[in-house]
Amino acid sequence: MAPCVVALDAGTGSLRAGVFDLESRLLGLAAEDWTAHAPEEEPLGYEFDPARTWAGLARAARRAMAQAGVPPEAVRAVSVTSQRDGDVLLDGEGRELCCALNRDARGVVYAGEIAEGLGERIHRITGRWPLGLGMLGRLWWFRQRSPEDYDRIAQVLMINDWLVYRLSGTFRSEPTNASSSLLFDIHRRGWSVELAEALDLSPAVFPDCVDPGTVAGPLRAEAAADLGLPEGIAVVVGAGDSQAAGLACGALDEGAAFAVAGTTLPVQMVLAEPVLDPQRRLHAGAHVLPDRWVLESNGGLAGALYRWFAETFAGPAPDYDRLEQEAASAPAGQVMAVLGPQVADFSRLRFPPPSLFRFPFLGVLEEPVGRGGFARAILESLAYAVRGNLEQVEAVVGRSAERLCLCGGLTRSRLFVQLVADVCERPVRVPAVREASCLGAAVCAAVGAG
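RE: above sequence
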């Protein structure tokens, strides 16, 4: 009976579970929709239901195990990854006070106040300019709008930290996702006491910070029963989804760059020391390895945009292979898409421009532009977003990337991968497993399992 590991992924697009052998081969994969809602009292909020989320991950884990066809006793460890910028606030009894996804923007109403009072300090410590988003913005909102709940906060967790807690009953955090909170000192790779005190928070609300691959504890009986896994196997700390994907790509050495063409399009370069953008357009963060950091730009919507187009113009269950053939047959550059991809500027809040397609007047074409032309235009715009964001990172770092890795669901499109290589004018490496974040968490699980 060959040993294997399980990875749970609470990503931006869905809830996923993957089963991998110790050679990183994918044995089974399942996904569940992840629903969220805006609280009635705060339309800018965006929260998930913890019980439904846990149930969705449990269903995904059982389906992935059934697909893999391996017995539960073959599983040696389980690890997790999640979207960044989301968090869970717990009270003293471990109950969830707020479970916020990364689209939760309630704190933007205080962006100016935060920036004026703490902006320079936050950027110096965390490598990010405060826009009222993420954990810091939400905590600021609770302190101003709901002081009774603010006083009840006993633990502040990133979403993957919360999953570790649900699995093992222990509180642990890790640097990659914590560095999206705007409360994490990326230089020391630990929670910032200075910023916690600025929010009148005890540093005790933050979990101990350990490296990805660290065993948090054994799998609790209740969690094991829900997931269909053996009680007592190792629960291993994972990483934030983008850095987990970078791990799966093998982006470990200084100068390596990778783009995750998933729901959104983060573009990161691996560095030997933290680098802060003096113009504040980029995000600095921690890498999975303890002696590495990343500098990130982001192209915005990617897979979410292409999925919208496919489901709208090719039916609710689109034939992506056929759409790929149509796009590959369409002339290059015939249609221009301005629908979401962009070059990041994290120094300010901005509304995206109106979405549009631009294409030649139908009367001058022998054949009207078809669906494939519009699909190709979206893929072309995403390829140029990879280049623009990569060049922005390279300009701040002062060097060209040694190599470019590309991962995420959109890499199933051979046309997209070729477009990125052509537009960026360099070879592109693509991992065999497209679900790179899941694979990165599985690597962490395998490390923890020994």
